[in-house]
Design goal:
The complex is a heterodimer of chains A (122) and B (110). With 122 residues, chain A is mainly β. Chain A has no helices and eleven strands. Chain B is mainly beta and 110 residues long. In chain B, strands 2, 4, 5, 8, 9 and 10 form a six-stranded mixed β-sheet that branches. Chain B has a four-stranded antiparallel β-sheet with strand order 1-3-7-6. The chains are: A mainly beta (122), B mainly beta (110).
């Protein structure tokens, strides 16, 4: 059974940084692309970033481009999201999701974690 | 502002069929078939319902079906049940090299 567990969320001031992690188990991690999807309180889903199986290709939403960096460590079955220059509008529950493809652009999200909450506030 | 537009809400009575539309710019939806649909209950993580426009993962009820015409993808829920009350989201790849979700549709069973 696929298991995705996010961690690293918390309360942070605007302009500061935070690093999210996602521990994956139950599948061959380096056979699949991975993503981060977020949901602001009471709002809809927003795709944040995706990374291919070998880190050779990454993609970002325009809202986070230049501030967030996605990465993965296949040896540790882990996905990361480095978030810099955080803004109040980045406040959201951040989900780690598994793709069904090797590359991030054209698949779909077949497994989701329970999310980690990031609150950006002074 | 999302480039994939969904109605904010759709409602129906038990046993009826409802359809949720997902309308996007040409390059997002009309150019290819990378459209998927997700169901989300309050306080829960989303669940994949439909992938590649029309395909159902194993375990998803046959009452859920997907289709696409031109630049609009659709999710139909047949024989509506109270357990179908949830939020529904479409997702697609855009040739702007991003993935997009629609704004979401709240389904209410009357």
């Amino acid at each position: 059974e696929v298991h995705l567990v996010e961690s690293g969320g918390g309360l942070v001031q605007p302009g500061r940084s935070l690093r999210l992690s996602c521990a994956a188990s139950g599948f061959i991690f380096d056979d699949y692309a991975m993503h981060w999807v977020r949901q602001a309180p009471g709002k809809g889903l927003e795709w944040v970033s995706g990374i291919s199986w070998n880190s050779g290709s990454v993609g970002y939403a325009d809202s986070v481009k230049g501030r967030f960096t996605i990465s993965r460590d296949n040896a540790k079955n882990s996905l990361y999201l480095q978030m810099n220059s955080l803004r109040t509008e980045d406040t959201a529950l951040y989900y780690c999701t598994k793709d069904v493809m090797l590359t991030w652009a054209t698949g779909y999200f077949d497994s989701w974690g329970q999310g980690t909450l990031v609150t950006v506030s002074s | 502002q999302s480039a994939l537009t969904q109605p904010a809400s759709v409602s129906g009575s038990p046993g009826q069929s409802i359809t949720i539309s997902c309308t996007g710019i040409r390059r997002a939806v009309g150019g290819h078939d990378y459209v998927s649909w997700y169901q989300q209950y309050p306080g829960k993580a989303p669940k994949l319902l439909i992938y590649a426009v029309t395909n159902r993962p194993s375990g998803v009820s046959h009452r859920f079906s997907g289709s696409k015409s031109g630049n609009t993808a659709s999710l139909t829920i047949s024989a509506l049940q109270t357990e179908d009350e949830a939020d529904y989201y479409c997702n697609s790849y855009t040739t702007g090299n991003t993935r997009l979700f629609g704004g979401g549709t709240k389904v209410t069973v009357l």
